[in-house]
Design a protein that fits this description.
Blueprint (H helix, E strand, L loop, with lengths): L29 E8 L1 H7 L7 H7 L7 H20 L4 H6 L8 E11 L9 E7 L8 E7 L7 H5 L2 E14 L3 E14 L6 E2 L5 E2 L18 H4 L7 H12 L15 E8 L2 E10 L18 H5 L6 E6 L5 H15 L5 E5 L1 H10 L4 H12 L1
Parallel strand pairs: 4-6, 8-12, 10-11, 11-12
Antiparallel strand pairs: 1-6, 2-3, 2-5, 3-4, 5-6, 6-7, 9-10
Length: about 375
């Protein structure tokens, strides 16, 4: 979907004909708390005849009870539904689809630097900037907006300097080193489950201890650097065979050039619940920290992985998994979670080594077993 500035589509934020009906959401615990809101752009984005009267009045600038609270919290729920309804993508996803162009909407959740928030700044202009990773390495995202649409006093401290924020906007211009964007809303995408809100993205990552098939891992065992180098000799196929055995898969899939995943299984146990998992496996052909450029000829393996309808996306590597890969995977998971719940599991070289050792397939353990057998 392409959105040209000044001609925004009217998303339907929820089903039903009653404008006062509560807005049903795929994730009732997810909330977008906004610090900046372009009321004019949002009015052009949503189906205004289906908004509750007090929300519409606040967006129109009318005198409404607790207008600040409505703009800071209530409107965010309709924007969350608009993002889901429009299947709005992240910038890396748009890059893989060759759709980084003026007018296209996007979401971004990550580190930014806010400028213009100092008390001595008398201009009406503010901005957020972020350095982008692959597949947009070498480019910077710059989001420009005005002070007049800040919705609460918290915005001045929350958006200043180095911070992390959620941005829903559209691309205005694309230059050699800069993607200039205009926002609908900027805020915190959080999860509220009874206590204090936490960043929603934090809940997207699973830990090895959450996986039933990994129950035998000895977290106390940490191989030395020389011991860990044995991972160089463990082929990807051996890891695949072990995983398929633990998952109870009757066959081991063959590798081929156009695959979206190395293993797809509906038998992954997550805290006692069976889930469908798509695995991306990387062996020792590149025995170094995983980078986005290691993921396929076009660096698009993660993008293809997240096209699979799965509950859990597993990224496994024989070495460390770098920050850029982790950020890209979590960004893809965040975007997908607007449509269907999903989680990400990172299985780095250390976890892989522990998994091999737990099942007697760590090279040193196999060597000892062979010596015992010969004796």
């Amino acid at each position: 979907m392409t959105v040209m500035p000044g001609a925004h589509p009217a998303f339907e934020p929820y089903e039903g004909n009653d404008a006062n009906e509560a807005c049903p959401r795929a994730h009732d615990s997810r909330q977008l708390a906004t610090y900046y809101l372009s009321r004019d752009r949002v009015l052009g984005l949503l189906q205004v005849d289906r908004l509750p009267a007090h929300v519409l009045a606040a967006l129109q600038g009318q005198d409404v009870s607790m207008a600040t609270s409505v703009l800071s919290n209530a409107v965010g729920q309709y924007l969350v539904d608009a993002i889901a309804h429009g299947n709005v993508k992240t910038l890396p996803q748009l890059a893989f689809e060759t759709r980084v162009q003026a007018g296209v909407p996007f979401i971004y959740d990550g580190h930014v630097c806010g400028r213009g928030f100092a008390e001595r700044n008398r201009t009406p202009h503010l901005s957020l900037s972020a350095k982008l990773d692959e597949p947009l390495a070498g480019k910077q995202l710059v989001v420009e907006f005005s002070k007049g649409n800040l919705v609460n006093d918290t915005a001045w401290t929350r958006m200043k300097g180095a911070t992390r924020l959620f941005v829903f906007g559209y691309i205005a211009d694309v230059y050699a080193t800069t993607i200039r964007a205009v926002p609908y809303a900027i805020g915190d995408l959080v999860e509220r489950t009874g206590g204090l809100p936490v960043p929603f993205v934090q809940g997207l990552e699973l830990r090895p201890e959450d996986i039933d098939q990994f129950a035998g891992l000895d977290e106390r065992w940490t191989p030395s650097a020389s011991e860990f180098s044995a991972m160089r000799g463990v082929p990807e196929q051996s890891v695949k065979e072990l995983l398929c055995r633990l998952l109870g898969e009757p066959s081991i899939p063959n590798d081929w050039g156009g695959e979206e995943s190395d293993v797809l299984s509906a038998n992954l146990g997550v805290n006692g619940r069976r889930q469908t998992a798509a695995f991306l496996l990387k062996g020792p052909s590149r025995f170094h920290q995983m980078k986005p450029t290691d993921l396929g000829r076009n660096g698009d393996q993660l993008y293809r992985l997240f096209n699979i309808p799965a509950d859990v996306f597993v990224i496994q590597h024989c070495h460390n998994i770098g920050a850029a890969v982790r950020k890209q995977a979590l960004a893809f998971a965040l975007q997908r979670s607007f449509i269907a719940p999903c989680r990400v599991l990172f299985v780095d070289g250390m976890t892989t080594a522990r998994l091999l050792r737990a099942h007697g397939e760590w090279p040193a353990e196999q060597a000892r077993q062979r010596r015992r057998t010969r004796a």
